[in-house]
Structure formats: structure tokens, C-alpha cells
Design goal:
mainly beta; nine-stranded parallel beta sheet
Length: 326
């Protein structure tokens, strides 16, 4: 059942009704006029498309690897534009969203990956990478990010900046929709290696958080929610690590909803500070809802191999707990 569930990451493409939207094309292999007006004349740099886009636009990004900045520009991120729908996973010839490869394996294959990478040094190492790959502030629910692999962010800055949180993605307020994305191999020194949400009501659908790590004395290997009413739907949290608490997810004063999601092989508690609480999920305040989820082989060095609750009022129903350890 676990293997079947891991494979069934649904294909969800959200197209909202309303006026026809302008499409801006991005393809790092394009050889045309670099205007973004067609696949042939596509921008080769995603940042150029984001600078041009407004709330009536979609951005279509072909397979390839895209970087938010150049060597040394660690504070550069891909900043979402309110109302803009950013779609990846194209071959580079489609005329409709429905033509985009949408089988369950294409997102993780080596054929049609659209990668947003923080590896601005292009050396395969985390040292010197972008602090945060994607940044979003006060974007509403018409803002969409879909079909990308987000990797190699390294939020290891000083505590005097926001560069300690959200190596993969940092959400400050707003209600954007994130669908069918893979957050992998991101790192943070404090909170939320894969994704950090503060005062947000973000919706995350059909996404995978894998091999993200919070080092130092940090919490929330996959996702950290602070004062956020996020919705996490049909997602997978696998092999994420928090040195302190919440290997898969840490939720502070947040009424988060997790539904039909899988937490497998997440761990917490290597720092020796808080001893590790909540291998799968750590709830600190709030009233989270956890519905039809699976917690398998998660581990905490102290309490709560699957879930740890502190000052919180969770509703947990129709869930499976199997071989978790504390």
C-alpha cells in the first residue's frame, strides 16, 4: 500500500476561469530573439519572464535547470508575482496546458524535469548556494506554482536575517497554490528546510518533500508553519531531517490541515538541545487536522515517533501508524 501510495502522486493542473491570459515562454535552450513571445523566441532566463509578468500572465517553462542568480548572489530568489501562474514541465512545443506531460513519473524522470536550483556556483555543493530558491510575499490564491523541482537552497545565514529559514521556499503571508512540485535536497540552519510559511494560508497539493535537512538547532525538515492555516493535500514527506523537532513538519500556533498525505522515514533529534520530538509531525499550539494520513517508519530521539503534540488540540482521524520509533 505504501509503494502504491508513493507512486500515485496525482496530476493536478489548475486553470482558473476568466479572461484569456498572456503566455510568456521560457526555455534555456532557445535560440530565437529572447522575447518570450513563443517557444522559438523564449526567454532563456526565468528571471526575465518574472520581471515582465503581471497578474494577467502565465509563464510556461520548458525542461532545463534555472538559477535565481549568478555566483555570489546568494540573496537572489525567484520571486512569485501576484496573480501570475508559473508552470513547469514542458517539452518546449506545447500549445495547451493539457499537452504538458502528466503521467505520474514524468515529474521525477530525467526527461521533462524543470529544475529551479539554488546551486548558483554550479558545482554540485550546498556551500555558497542561494539562501532561498523561491520567495513569495502576500500573493493571493490566483498565484500558482506547478510542475517544478525545487532544490539546493541553503538558508545558512545569520540569525539577524531571514536567510536562516526556507531553503527551498519562503512564504511570507498570502494564499498561493503550490501543486505537483518536488522539494528536495534543500537545507536550513533554523526553520523549514523545504518550505517555511509565516502568517500564510498556502495550499500545497500533490507535492513531495524529500531529503531536506534543518541543521543547527532547527525545526521542520520538510515544512515549518508559523501562525499559518496551510492546507497540505495528497503530499509525501520522505527522509527529511530536523536536528531538533518535527522531521517532516513543525507547526507553531497553526491550524494546519493535512489530508491523504504520507510521512515516511523522517527523523528528528540530533542536536541534543530538545532531544527530538515528532519524527513525522510536531504540533506546538493550534488545532491541526490530520485526516487519512499514513505515518510509517518515522523516528524521534525523544518523544513522538509519528506525531508529537504540545499545547495543541489536534483532530486525528482515519490514519495509519506503523513502525514509528521514539
Amino acid at each position: 500500500m505504501v509503494i502504491k501510495s508513493l507512486l500515485l502522486v496525482c496530476s493536478l493542473f489548475i486553470v482558473l476561469p476568466g479572461q484569456a491570459q498572456n503566455i510568456i515562454y521560457v526555455n534555456d535552450d532557445a535560440n530565437g530573439a529572447n522575447t518570450g513571445l513563443s517557444w522559438f523566441d523564449a526567454y532563456t532566463n526565468l528571471q526575465d519572464a518574472l520581471l515582465e509578468a503581471d497578474s494577467t500572465d502565465q509563464i510556461w517553462v520548458a525542461t532545463g535547470v534555472y538559477y535565481p542568480g549568478e555566483r555570489g548572489e546568494r540573496d537572489h530568489s525567484f520571486k512569485l508575482v501576484n496573480g501570475v501562474k508559473l508552470y513547469g514541465g514542458f517539452r518546449g512545443s506545447e500549445t495547451s496546458l493539457l499537452e504538458r506531460p502528466n503521467d505520474t513519473t514524468s515529474l521525477f524522470s530525467q526527461t521533462y524535469n524543470t529544475i529551479l536550483s539554488g546551486d548558483i556556483n554550479k558545482d554540485g555543493e550546498l556551500i555558497g548556494n542561494s539562501y532561498t530558491v523561491i520567495y513569495s510575499t502576500d500573493t493571493d490564491s490566483t498565484t500558482i506554482l506547478s510542475g517544478f523541482i525545487i532544490s539546493s537552497g541553503n538558508a545558512n545565514g545569520s540569525n539577524s536575517t531571514r536567510h536562516t529559514d526556507g531553503g527551498g521556499m519562503y512564504n511570507n503571508g498570502g494564499t498561493p497554490i503550490i501543486s505537483k512540485c518536488l522539494f528536495t535536497n534543500n537545507q536550513a540552519s533554523r526553520l523549514g528546510a523545504g518550505m517555511f510559511n509565516t502568517e500564510s494560508a498556502i495550499k500545497v497539493i500533490d507535492c513531495v518533500f524529500s531529503n531536506n535537512k534543518v541543521l543547527g538547532n532547527g525545526d521542520g525538515g520538510g515544512i515549518y508553519n508559523s501562525d499559518s492555516d496551510s492546507e497540505i493535500i495528497t503530499c509525501i514527506f520522505q527522509n527529511n531531517l530536523a536536528n531538533d523537532d518535527g522531521g517532516g513538519s513543525y507547526n507553531r500556533n497553526s491550524n494546519v490541515t493535512f489530508s491523504e498525505s504520507i510521512f515516511i522515514g523522517n527523523t528528528c533529534g540530533n542536536s541534543g538541545i530538545h532531544n527530538g520530538e515528532g519524527g513525522g509531525i510536531h504540533n506546538d499550539g493550534g488545532a491541526p487536522k490530520i485526516d487519512r494520513c499514513q505515518f510509517i517508519n518515522n523516528e524521534a530521539s525523544h518523544w513522538g515517533g509519528g506525531i508529537f503534540n504540545d499545547r495543541s488540540s489536534p483532530q486525528v482521524q482515519t490514519c495509519i501508524f506503523n513502525t514509528n520509533h521514539a
